[in-house]
Design brief:
Oligomer: single chain
Order of helices and strands: HHHEEHEHEHEEEEEHEHEEEHH
Helix content: 25-40%
Distance between the termini: 67 Å
Number of strands: 13
Length: 315
């Protein structure tokens, strides 16, 4: 008979969160348990495995040892497999059922999630899709901690994450919006240099702000950022009021804004490279059949010629 293991899945989970956060204190806050419980779990795990997993320096947090780095990937795989066993046990062995945890970049959610939910409910009613809407850095952290199976996000900020596997499913070119009564509103296309004297309404999200700044800076001018907001729709409403122009990527199906005004969309003749929309997962982690089904439908949504996502790309 095989000898029982000394460590538990709970210990592995606490270890992964501590490794991700680099701090027992931050891990305990995320897990909503006492710091002593996290420390005790990691200490017991080290004793069971007879290895040191962290280098602990006062005031400098936790650093993984080589043994800790090896265990980090193995623990991710093991916890993913444990979730798969649990989900399979909940299904009937023939149809897909159980939860799939999906991360989604906040500005992509209104475009991809409604068609995903409506079609997936029809195809796989036994699958429960749980969504975490966040920015790129938070999604990467959620992937590393095993809180989500995969993420749908832009390629911004991913180049420094070698452990991630990504697949491009769509490309979103940049475009300009101005108020409907702007002198350039009926022009159809524009170069950013033509707007250099006007204020920029900035979608102020991590990585996104750098991308938009770079687009304007490439024209040889410094952007006059007059208004900043983390809300995509607030950007559109401010522009509709004539308070400036903005640069965005995803196109709503209507020019009407929440504030009641309208914007005009202009194709950007000097817009650089489009943003890549990607499905991102942890490298080396096998995806469940349910997660693969969700990924497949997202690919369909991104490439559907009848989808509003594609129909307005030619504007």
């Amino acid at each position: 008979m095989t000898s029982p293991l000394g460590f538990t899945l709970v210990q592995l989970r606490y270890f992964l969160v501590a490794a991700e956060r680099g701090s027992m204190t931050e891990a305990s806050a995320e897990l909503h348990i006492a710091q002593s419980a996290v420390s005790a779990a990691v200490h017991s795990l080290e004793q069971d495995l007879q290895v040191q997993l962290f280098i602990r320096r006062r005031g400098r947090g936790l650093t993984l040892t080589p043994a800790g780095e090896r265990l980090q990937q193995q623990a991710r795989d093991l916890l993913a497999r444990a979730r798969e066993v649990h989900r399979e046990a909940r299904g009937d062995g023939e149809t897909l059922s159980g939860p799939v945890a999906v991360g989604c970049f906040v500005t992509l959610a209104p475009y991809y999630l409604p068609p995903l939910f409506s079609e997936f409910t029809r195809r796989h009613p036994g699958i429960e899709i749980d969504v975490v809407e966040a920015e790129t850095d938070e999604l990467v952290q959620a992937l590393a901690a095993g809180r989500i199976d995969f993420a749908l996000t832009y390629g911004l900020g991913l180049s420094s994450e070698p452990e991630l596997h990504s697949e491009t499913i769509a490309r979103a070119p940049a475009y300009v919006i101005v108020s409907a009564d702007h002198p350039l509103a009926g022009q159809g296309s524009v170069e950013l240099a033509e707007l250099s004297a006007e204020p920029l309404v900035l979608l102020d999200l991590p990585h996104s702000r750098d991308y938009f700044h770079a687009l304007v800076a490439a024209t040889g001018t410094a952007p006059d950022v007059r208004y900043r907001t983390r809300s995509y729709e607030t950007v559109r409403s401010l522009v509709a009021r004539g308070l400036g122009y903005s640069v965005l990527n995803q196109r709503p199906a209507t020019s009407q804004t929440y504030g009641g005004g309208e914007v005009a969309e202009l194709r950007l003749r000097d817009g650089g490279h489009p943003l890549e929309v990607k499905i991102v997962s942890m490298g080396g982690v096998a995806q469940t059949a349910r997660a693969r089904a969700v990924m497949g439908l997202l690919r369909e949504i991104a490439t559907d010629e009848k989808s509003p996502l594609r129909a307005r790309d030619s504007l």
